[in-house]
Amino acid sequence: MKRSGRRPGNQDTRASILDAARRTFAEKGFDKASIRAIAAGAEVDPALVHHYFGTKEQLFLAAMNAPINPGELIPQALAGPREQAGERLVRLMLTVWDSPAGSAALAMFRSALSNEWTARLLREFVITQILRRAVGDLIDDPSEAPLRSSLVATQMAGVLVARYVLKIQPLAGADPEVIVAAVGPNVQRFLVDPMPEVFKQAAS
Fold this sequence. Notes:
The chain is mainly α and 204 residues long. The chain folds into 2 domains: 11-63, Orthogonal Bundle (Arc Repressor Mutant, subunit A); 70-203, Orthogonal Bundle (Tetracycline Repressor, domain 2), CATH 1.10.357. The protein is built from 11 helices and no strands. The protein has helices at residues 11-32, 35-42, 46-53, 56-63, 70-78, 85-97, 101-114, 116-136, 145-165, 176-192, 196-203. The protein starts with 10 loop residues before the first helix and ends with a helix. The model is unreliable at 1-7 (pLDDT under 50).
């Protein structure tokens, strides 16, 4: 007799959880997605989601096939003088993308440029796992965090597209420290420098 109800735990269930997680994260965003909702979408008990993936953050990284865990790397970039944080973040980005993990990151990035669902997931990944961590610990006024995060993203995404996707020379073949020296000050400004002209306009 065929049993009804929730699925038992097996590899098919693991795949179902990942599929449900991708749908839920893309539809609701990281903050509003819940383990309970993801479990309901996969027709499993929430305890099974925790069993396979642990925390919601770990599930999100698995759903993204993320080649790195920003929670482990971002603190390394933030450790050091505040006035050099922009350079350290750019250096970290280049180190990851020039490493073997860069191939997986590039595939995810390319997919996001042409696929709306992947773009939503990547946006959540960048905002919640990278920018929120990087900006949140540095700025003095939390109300400025969303705009500062977006401005930092313009620099990071611009470098990634030009260097790794379009491969524009001489940027594509430049020594990473050249890019750090060129882009780091812009990232630093968007992270922590006073920008009264920007936030006065944003508030009006």
